């Protein structure tokens, strides 16, 4: 099997979907699959370039087309490279903003149709469209309507043999517009680094550690949560602290001021190496995410905490899907609401082993092979 993945940019550690694609390629290459990457709208190069990408001693070809190049030249360069590589499958890693800075890639359908050749098409929906929340702005709803049209036209035109997405919420949304997708769980870009921490160190820790990894989303009930968290541990005569890892964003200041207000210990680690992130996650007792529950499964940072077997507390904006779609939480999550922290403290968490890049790569191959056998 020979597969070319098509994404926007492929600059390592600069683009989440690009990093996802590289890590999946690495795992597929380990399993004997021939892979390549076409970065069709790369914002990190100024000229068309071909290179061999190396991931843990696995190398595969990457062809990068700058985002500023006109559409006709993009198509021409892509066709020349694809004819040389001759893939059996083209796998579109779809995010609207990967292919257009405003998130409205109106020309994408025509461009991709022009490079199809004899390859079969696969698509991974990392994102769908804006306006899926009940409190989204009118602007988001208008943009979302255009993005939804683009998604439907892509599916109609390219006739994808396999459609994947990594949230059960997106599965149901796609089903409502007659697109039958398959759930393919996301994996973390932070692999578990073995032997970085003595387990006894964690078990014997005098402080309960909560880790918040990655972007902090707005409108979370920060004050209520920290107040309740502090009261619980003070009552039980226990010490706890919050640890921030990665690029937290502008909301970090709000959390920091609230922690100071309630005299809570915290550390800000910032951007860290893969090994350091894995060590911090292994050293923590609980994870915190500010993603609403119905989009949890698309978060790479949530995937990292899950793969490190952390119970995860959802402290997020009170928002719901615009459509009446119910999403049930798995047993390694707990959703914070005002007054229920004591329930979290006694909650029984259970974990799944069906996570990680190996599991995802295996299912990816199986789903494509089913098409080949038909």
In short:
Helix content is 36%, strand content 21%.
Structure explained in plain terms:
The model has no long low-confidence stretch (mean pLDDT 89). The protein is globular. By secondary structure, it is of the alpha/beta class. The chain has helices at residues 16-30, 71-85, 108-113, 138-158, 168-175, 199-203, 222-235, 252-261, 274-283, 300-307, 341-345, 357-373; strands at residues 2-7, 34-42, 49-55, 58-66, 89-94, 120-125, 162-165, 182-183, 207-213, 239-245, 265-270, 286-289, 312-314, 333-335. It folds into two domains: 2-187 and 357-373, Glycogen Phosphorylase B (Rossmann fold, 3-Layer(aba) Sandwich), CATH 3.40.50; 199-345, Rossmann fold (3-Layer(aba) Sandwich).
List keywords for this structure.
Rossmann fold, 2 domains, eight-stranded mixed beta sheet, globular, Glycosyl transferase family 1 domain-containing protein
- The amount of beta strand, in percent, is 15-25%
The domain count comes to 2
Low-confidence stretches: none
Task: Note the overall shape.
Answer: globular
H/I helix tally: 12
Level-2 CATH architecture of the largest domain: 3-Layer(aba) Sandwich
Mean pLDDT: 89
Protein name: Glycosyl transferase family 1 domain-containing protein
Which helices and strands appear, and what pairs or packs with what?
Layout: E1 2-7, H1 16-30, E2 34-42, E3 49-55, E4 58-66, H2 71-85, E5 89-94, H3 108-113, E6 120-125, H4 138-158, E7 162-165, H5 168-175, E8 182-183, H6 199-203, E9 207-213, H7 222-235, E10 239-245, H8 252-261, E11 265-270, H9 274-283, E12 286-289, H10 300-307, E13 312-314, E14 333-335, H11 341-345, H12 357-373
Parallel strand pairs: 1-2, 1-5, 2-4, 5-6, 6-7, 7-8, 9-10, 9-12, 10-11, 12-13, 13-14
Antiparallel strand pairs: 3-4
Helix pairs in contact: 1-12
Organism: Neotamlana nanhaiensis
Protein name: Glycosyl transferase family 1 domain-containing protein
């Amino acid at each position: 099997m020979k597969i070319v993945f098509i994404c926007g940019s492929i600059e390592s550690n600069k683009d989440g979907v690009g990093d996802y694609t590289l890590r999946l390629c690495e795992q597929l290459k380990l399993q004997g699959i021939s892979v390549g990457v076409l970065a069709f709208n790369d914002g990190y190069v100024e000229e068309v370039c071909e290179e061999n990408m190396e991931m843990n001693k696995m190398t595969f070809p990457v062809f990068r087309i700058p985002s500023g190049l006109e559409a006709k030249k993009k198509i021409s360069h892509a066709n020349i490279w694809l004819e040389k590589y001759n893939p059996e499958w083209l796998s579109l890693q779809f995010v609207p903003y990967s292919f257009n800075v405003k998130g409205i890639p109106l020309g994408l359908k025509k461009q991709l149709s022009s490079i199809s050749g004899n390859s079969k098409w696969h698509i991974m929906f990392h994102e769908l469209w804006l306006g899926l929340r009940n409190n989204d702005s009118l602007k988001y709803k208008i943009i979302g309507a255009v993005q939804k049209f683009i998604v439907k036209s892509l599916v109609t035109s390219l006739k994808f043999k396999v459609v994947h997405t990594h949230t059960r919420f997106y599965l149901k949304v796609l089903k409502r517009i007659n697109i039958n997708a398959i759930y393919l769980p996301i994996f973390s870009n932070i692999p578990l680094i073995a032997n970085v921490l003595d387990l006894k160190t964690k078990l014997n820790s005098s402080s309960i550690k909560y880790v918040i990894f990655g972007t902090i989303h707005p409108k979370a009930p920060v004050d209520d949560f920290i107040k309740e968290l502090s009261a619980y541990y003070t009552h039980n005569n226990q010490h706890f602290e919050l640890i921030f890892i990665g690029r937290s964003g502008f909301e970090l200041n709000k959390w920091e001021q609230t922690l100071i207000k309630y005299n809570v210990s915290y550390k800000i680690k910032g951007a860290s190496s893969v090994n350091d992130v894995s060590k911090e996650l292994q050293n923590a007792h609980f994870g915190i995410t500010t993603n609403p529950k119905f989009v949890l499964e698309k978060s790479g940072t949530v995937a990292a905490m899950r793969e490190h077997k952390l119970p995860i507390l959802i402290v997020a904006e009170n928002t719901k899907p615009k459509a009446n779609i119910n999403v049930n939480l798995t047993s390694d999550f707990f959703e914070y609401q005002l007054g229920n922290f004591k329930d979290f403290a006694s909650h029984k968490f259970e974990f799944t082993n069906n996570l990680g890049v190996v599991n995802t790569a295996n299912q990816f191959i199986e789903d494509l092979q089913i098409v080949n056998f038909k």
